[in-house]
């Protein structure tokens, strides 16, 4: 990505994904997605991790 003729810089993204298939409790879904995101960041970032029990 280059912003207004400046030096290019790299953008990366990490995602933790959970599903309501395992639980219908919103807080549990968020907790699972957070656990998946933490696993992605530990593994090196710039990835997607899906929570699996």
Quick structural overview:
This protein is 34% helix and 11% strand. With 53 residues, the chain is of the alpha+beta class. The protein has a two-stranded parallel sheet.
What does this structure look like?
- The protein is an alpha+beta fold.
- It has a domain of 36 residues.
- The chain has one helix and two strands, in the order βαβ.
- The protein has a two-stranded parallel ribbon with strand order 1-2.
Which tags fit this structure?
elongated, two-stranded parallel sheet, 53 residues, 1 helix
Q: pLDDT below 50 for ≥5 consecutive residues: which ranges? A: none
Strands in their spatial order, largest beta sheet: 1-2
Oligomer: single chain
Q: Average pLDDT value?
A: 88
- Sequence of secondary-structure elements: EHE
Share in helix = 25-40%
Q: How far apart, in Å, are the first and last alpha carbons? A: 37 Å
How does the helix and strand content classify structurally? Answer: alpha+beta
Count of β-strands: 2
Query: Count the helices. How many?
Result: 1
Determine Rg (CA atoms, Å).
15 Å
Question: What secondary-structure arrangement, pairings included, does this model have?
Answer:
Blueprint: E1 15-17, H1 26-43, E2 48-50
Parallel strand pairs: 1-2
